[in-house]
Amino acid sequence: MGPEVDDPTTSAAAAPPERPAPTARVGAVGSAGSALRSLLRTREASIVGVLVASVLGASLMVDGFATGRNAGFLILDVTAIALIALPMTLVIITGEIDLSVASTLGLTSAVMGQLWVAGLPLEAIVPLCVLLGSALGALNGLLVTVAGLPSLAVTIGSMAMYRGLAYVVLGDRAVADFPFSWTGGATARLPGTDVPWIALLIAVLAVVFGILLHATPVGRSLYAIGSNDEATRFSGISVRWTKLWLFVVSGTVAAGAGVFWTLQYGSARADNAFGLELSVVAAVLLGGVSIFGGRGALVGVLAGVLLLGTIRNALMLADVSSDVLDIVTGLLLVVSVVLPTTLARVRERRPRPAPPS
Amino acid sequence: MSGTEETGAPAAGTAARTGPPGAAAGEAAPQPPKEHGAGDGRAGRRIRQVRELGILLALALLVAVTTLANPGFLSGQSVRDLLLGATLLTILAVGQSMVLITRNVDLSVGSVMGLSAFAVGVTFVSLPGLPTPIVMAIGVLVGTLCGVVNGVLVAAARVPALVVTLGTLYMFRGIDYWWAGGRQINAADMPDGFLGLARITLFGIPLPAVVALAVVLAAGWYLRNYRSGRELYAVGSEPAAARLVGIPVDRRVFAPFVINGSLAGLAGVLYAARFGTLDATVGTGLELEVVAAAVVGGVAIFGGSGTVYGAALGALLLSTIDAALPMLQVGSFWQQAVVGLLILVSIGLDRLLAVRAARRLRGGGSRGA
Q: Could you tell me where the Low complexity compositional bias lies (chain A) (predicted)?
């Protein structure tokens, strides 16, 4: 066990739960864990580097990639993943996981379609759907925090249940007669540019989540929880309350993404975004967030989302069949975790004459 | 750089999750259920029996109700279909349980099964003269190789299993798509002897179901009676402690991945024999259903407890639900919702039993959680 692992928690435990505590705590982590910090920097920097390299490579080699029009499509393509990845990052940093997000998206979409068929105006449907997402997230959160069940198992269960309920609500029908003012509006570009307005929303949300995670006591406590939730509880942070809220936020954002998805593709279906949860988790992990919690940064996650989007987009433009994308995604994910671990081991063993494994 | 190594290593990561021993010994109960002795010990054994009896009861109830509503449910053909349907899930759930018991997970099983099923088809097409048993062995071998890849990455590179197998899920599926290139292999491309395997019955039980039963019994026997089998539980309960008592943790983590890969390969072969139509989408999304079957069967998702018998019962229950709902005139759309609810109820029940067992062991002491 290195000091790095214990650092956030021990300093959090040492800090009295008074007002000046947060700044003191952040300071302590900054100085004592400077090695960790520089490591984090390189980890995120390398993903951003790979992103920049692949964007440059795609611009040079793929016709039609480096156009504003294509950039707009790329952003619309990754919108759902980007939105859901924001709360997912926070959830994984606390050492939990939410696999039910894609099913929440599907259920929201199905309910949206059914309510539209029932004759409600979209002005009423949209807030109802988002509220439904909050409730679905709260159910996950309650099962994890109050009942004390492992979130991996809980959200596998709710993943099946929410998707099942989506089928119960809408069957295998599709509702596709939403008014164009809404469906067209969803993919509308910012005036005078090729940038869809949703990009602005993603950016604003990313900044909000980034500040929350990296610059507030709440954000610091998420790392502490992920490193050692027992110790964090003893230091006076309400672990359960924090986790409950994270699941609520996760459900809410997934529902928002569901509303957008439905309008973007103009079709409400129960199987919308099937399997998306693994893409989201893959993007988050690719972005350098540790699956065990306590480590990661939002910049890396955004780079991870964009990297997967860029590769997908470039391969499609280059007429490479999309199956290669799966191989690339998987390889990137495995390499991104194997490489740093192996490098660290090699570095550790360097004094010895034995060859590294 | 050493920071990555620290949290990257399974031992360190899981230690951080369960909390320091000092805190665990305190009056507040730690988050994961402390049923580490669930493989041994009287309380643990009772929990297991209650759990497995519970699934059996649920299964019996479901079958009884369905038969009352539709007497055709217990007809020979219907039961044979049910058993055939449960075969693949059971075999996969057995392999998954062994991985889960060591506190790892293998999300790539659906892709491995698809890949080896396609390998079987391609071998029949490109080498028509090859005897069927050899082709089947090739299918299992493909699965084994995939399992070795997973095992090496998890045990030797010490990367979290969830991340690795999520990566290989995409990789194996991608290779499958790339290999298939939109091709489909049909029953006409495969010899009748191979396709007839699913129709052979022993005492009225389809051959694949007999194979699944043999797999369950062998794995159960191994986990219960072999030293290395018992050590899988030790590794899953507390990897750091297992290392300290001298258990070769890396090897004990590696082996279940390889076995699971072989079993996924076997499932792929049986899939090819039963359905005869193969493309690159075989087994898509199956991984979470397999984990669900194991969890419903009482295998703890964070390792150290559960049996393959339970997992097999879980798989049988999920398959029976699939078959029974249409007969009960419940819309097939309810199926997945019911399965989801069942998973939540099962893990809730596990938690409840663990809490009660812990209270009993503590002599009625209060629980924080």
A: 8-26
Which residues in chain B touch residue A165, judged by CB atoms under 8 angstroms apart?
337
Rounded to the nearest 5 degrees, what angle is found at the Cα of B195, between the Cα atoms of B193 and B199? 95
Q: How far, in Å, CA of B235 to CA of B102, rounded? A: 5
Q: In this predicted structure, what is the pLDDT of residue B41?
A: 56
Helices (H), chain A: 3-14, 21-32, 34-61, 68-93, 101-117, 122-145, 151-170, 180-186, 197-215, 217-227, 229-234, 239-265, 276-286, 298-317, 323-349
Contact A161 B343 (CB under 8 A): yes
Cβ contact, residue pair A2, B171, below 8 Å: no
Nearest by CB to A156, from B157, B173, B288: name it: B288
User: pLDDT band at residue A333, thresholds of 50, 70 and 90?
Assistant: confident
Instruction: State whether A167 and B336 contact (CB < 8 Å).
Output: yes
| Top-confidence range, A194-208, A323-337, B119-133, B323-337 | A194-208
User: Domains of chain A: which residue ranges?
Assistant: 77-341
Gyration radius of chain A's alpha carbons: 21
How far apart are alpha carbons B168 and B180 in whole angstroms?
18
| pLDDT over 90 (residue A303) | yes
Query: A147 vs B348: CB contact, 8 Å cut-off?
Result: yes
In chain B, what are the domains? 43-351 (1.10.3470)
Q: How far is A351 from chain B (nearest CA, A)?
A: 14
pLDDT at B69: 84
Partner residue opposite A294 with nearest CB, options B7, B288, B343: B7
Taking CA–CA distances from B155, the nearest residue in chain A reads A338
| CATH number belonging to the domain at A77-341, selected among 1.10.4160, 2.40.160, 1.10.3470, 3.40.190 | 1.10.3470
Chain-chain contact of B160 with A291 (C-beta, under 8 angstroms): yes
